[in-house]
Amino acid sequence: MRTIIITILSVLTVDQLLKLWVKLTFHYGEKIELIPGWFELQFVENPGMAFGWMLPGTTGKIVLSVFRIVVVSGILWYVIRLSKKHVSKLYLICLSLIVAGALGNIIDSLAYGVMFDKGSTFDEHFQDFIGYPGVAQANGEGYAPMLRGNVVDMLHFDREVTWPSWSPIYPGETRELFPPIFNIADSAITFGILLILLFQKRIFTDPQDEVVVTEDITPAAQEE
Fold first, then answer.
1. How far apart are the first and last CA of the chain?
2. Phi and psi (nearest 5°) for 127?
3. pLDDT tens digit string along 145-176?
4. pLDDT tens per residue, range 18-51
5. In the chain, at which end, N or C, are there fewer CB atoms within 10 A of the end residue's CB?
6. Rounded to the nearest 10 degrees, how much is the dihedral formed by the CA atoms of 13, 19, 22, 27?
7. Do 49 and 157 touch, CB atoms closer than 8 A?
8. CA distance 152 to 26
9. SS3 for 51?
10. Is 210 in contact with 95 (CB distance < 8 Å)?
11. Which pLDDT band, with edges at 50, 70 and 90, does 210 fall under?
12. What is residue 101's three-state secondary structure?
């Protein structure tokens, strides 16, 4: 349980501190270049799932928020059960990363709409979520009800590449290598899943299968 708690709290702390700093200091769409031509902070809000995926409208937002809560509750229950058994510590860390990432985005959906006075809102005319002017304040005025707050995203790989002319996709076009803007919580979920895929043999090997039974080859045994 100590491993689970430390992993979850560490991810949540870093994720929320960065989100709060960006939300309270950045104008919507503002950018800060960290590694020129490769990586930047760019403040946007995501009304949907990881990497900007979403269901349309406010109903879709509520459905996604409830779905997050149900899924993370199930995974957390599963992790707590596993902690009482002899399972791979790496597996517990991977699942804890996934839980922490999901919780980080759930906090945004639950609280940010109530905490802050500004946030991107759904525009019926454009049938999309649009940004806002100025910098948000945490004054409790609220821009959306609970479960309808937006997730704060800011991490962006802005490296552009030119696809070769023979490429089956985007032939000859110059595009960003990885367009989605994401956050620490998204990264934790992705990293946890990748670790499970990369080390699944180590994670899911039964410790009893690794016990090597050697034959008794002492002289007494040979005489018998």
1. 50
2. 55, 45
3. 888 889 999 999 988 888 888 988 888 888 88
4. 999 999 999 999 999 999 989 999 999 987 655 4
5. C
6. -170
7. no
8. 11
9. helix
10. no
11. very low
12. helix
Among the listed residues 153, 158, 206, 209, the single catalytic one is: 153
Looking at the whole model, is its pTM more than 0.85?
A: no
Give the DSSP H/E element, type plus range, for residue 175. Answer: strand 174-182
Token pair in block for residue 126: 């454009």
Neighbours of 44 (CB within 10 A): 21
Q: Which helix (H) or strand (E) segment is 83 a member of?
A: helix 57-83
Residues 195 and 98: their CA atoms lie apart, in Å, by 11
Contact 34, 42 (CB under 8 A): no
Verify whether residue 108 is a known catalytic residue.
no
> Of 186, 206, 209, 216, which is the active-site residue?
186
- Return d(Cα 101, Cα 199) in angstroms, integer: 20
Q: Which amino acid is at 65?
A: S
Q: What single-letter DSSP state applies at residue 139?
A: S
Residues 6+ apart with CB under 8 A from 11: 96, 97, 100, 101, 104, 184, 185, 188
Q: What are phi and psi of 41, to 5 degrees?
A: -100, 130
Rounded to an integer, what distance in angstroms lies between the CA atom of residue 186 and that of residue 53? 12
Letter for the amino acid at 48? G
Residue 186 annotated among the catalytic residues of the structure:
yes
